[in-house]
Amino acid sequence: PFSIRNKVLYNLNTNEIYNGLMKRLGINYYQVIVTDTRIGSIDAQKCMPILGEQQLFAMLDEHNNPIFIYPKNNKTGYQINELPFYLQNTTAVLVSQMVVNANDDQNVLFYKTYNTTYKNNKRVTNTTANVDLSQKVVGINRQEILTGNYQNLLNGFYQHKTIDSTVNQRYYHTLKTLNPIGNLYSAQIIQQDTLLHIQQQNALANAITQLTDTTYQINLNQWVQHITTNLTNNTKRIQPYYPDFANTDTHQITLQFDHNIQLISPQKKLLSIDEQTKIGAYYLKIEQPTANTIQLTTALIIKTDKILPDQIPYLQQLFEAANAASNLNIQVALSK
After folding, report:
1. Which of 183, 182, 185, 129 is nearest to 328 (CA)?
2. CA distance 14 to 192
3. pLDDT tens profile 108-119
4. What are the CA-CA distances from residue 126 to residues 52, 88, 213, 254 (Å)?
5. How far apart are CA 101 and CA 108, in angstroms?
C-alpha cells in the first residue's frame, strides 16, 4: 500500500525475502511454478503459456519428496507444506536454485502437489439454543471444529477478518448474520494448531413466532449454511463441475425449551440421499430425545473434487436438499 504520510511506495514482494532466507541456509532449494486449478494446469509433456501462475518455494526431504513453502503476505498465511485448496492435486515445476552443474537433468523437476479427501476436510458444528417461549428469546452457543482445507481457508477470517473474495462467501457465514439483539454476538478461538476450534455466542429476538395460545414456530432460517452452488442452469452442461474440495460438513442443532413441548412440524423427520455414483451424500434427521429438547442433524458429504456432466443432476439433488435445511421452521406445541 502507498503510505501518504511517508510518501513511500512499499515493496511487498515477499519472494525476495524468502529467496534471501533460503540462500542463507546454504542448501539446495527450488523455486516452484504452479497454477491455480480453477484457471488452468501444467502439463509436463507440453510447452504452453501458464494461466494463474503462482510462485512458491520447496525443499526435498530425505526421501526426495518436496516440502512446499507458500510465501506469507499477511498475518496468518500458510504453514510449511500447507497449500490453499486451489494449488492441491496439480502438477508443479521445481527449478533448482543452488546448482553445481547447469546442465543436470535434475535441475528441473515435475511433482504433483498433495491431495486431500472428504475425510481430511471436515467442518463439525454443534449449536445449542436455549429457547425461552415465555420471553420469545433464543440464546445460542455454537462450537465449530474445522480441519484440513476448512481450517486453512478460515484461519485468517476468524483471526483477522480477512476474506478471500474469489471463494464461495458461504464459508464466512457466522451467527452474527442472524440479526442479534444489540451487541450480544461474540466469537473466540479455542484452539488453532492441529484443528481450528471456534466458539460463537448470540441472542435472537426474532426467531420465535407464537401461532396460537399453545403452539409456536422456531425460525431456523440461515442457522445452517452448507457450501453449495446454484446448478439450476447446468443440467445439460458438457464440462465437469469442480467443487472447491472434497469435504464433510456436519451440523447438529439442539433446541432446549423452557417448557415441555411436542414436535408438530416438519412431519418428515428423516431424509437420506446416498446415490450410487458415490459422488456424495446428504442426511437430515429431526428427533425429540427428551420432553423439552429437539435435535436436528444435517450433513452434506462431497466425496470427489471432480463431478462428471452426467453426475450433475445427482449433485443438484444433494445441493437442493442441503439448501432446504437453511430454511427450516420447527413448530411445537406445549405439552398438556
Report:
1. 129
2. 25
3. 999 999 999 999
4. 37, 29, 31, 8
5. 12
β-bridge mates for residue 109, sequence order: 94
**pLDDT value, residue 233:** 66
The span from the CA of 323 to the CA of 305, in Å, is 20
pLDDT single digits (tens) 145-163: 999 999 999 998 998 888 8
- Confidence bin at 39 (pLDDT 50/70/90): confident
What is the percentage of the chain residues whose pLDDT exceeds 70?
A: 92
Cell readout for 25 is 541456509
Q: Can you give the pTM of this predicted structure?
A: 0.88
- How is residue 6 written as a grid cell? 511517508
Give the burial class of 223: count Cβ atoms within 10 A of its Cβ; 0-12 exposed, 13-18 middle, 19 or more buried.
Answer: buried
Question: At 5, phi and psi to the nearest 5?
Answer: -65, -45
Q: Residue 200's closest CA among 122, 254, 129? A: 129
Sign of CA dihedral 188, 195, 30, 109: negative
Place 10 in a pLDDT band, splitting at 50, 70 and 90: low
CA nearest neighbour of 308 among 272, 276, 277: 277
DSSP per-residue letters across 204-247: ESSSEEE-SSSEEEEE-TTT--------TT-TT-SS-B--SS-E
Spatial contact of 124 and 145, defined as CB atoms under 8 Å apart? yes
- pLDDT tens per residue, range 276-308: 668 999 999 999 999 999 999 999 999 999 999
Q: What is the DSSP letter of 289?
A: E
Contacts of 316 by beta carbon, 8 Å cutoff, 6+ apart:
231, 232, 234, 235
Q: 20, exposed or middle or buried, with CB in 10 Å at 0-12, 13-18, 19+?
A: exposed
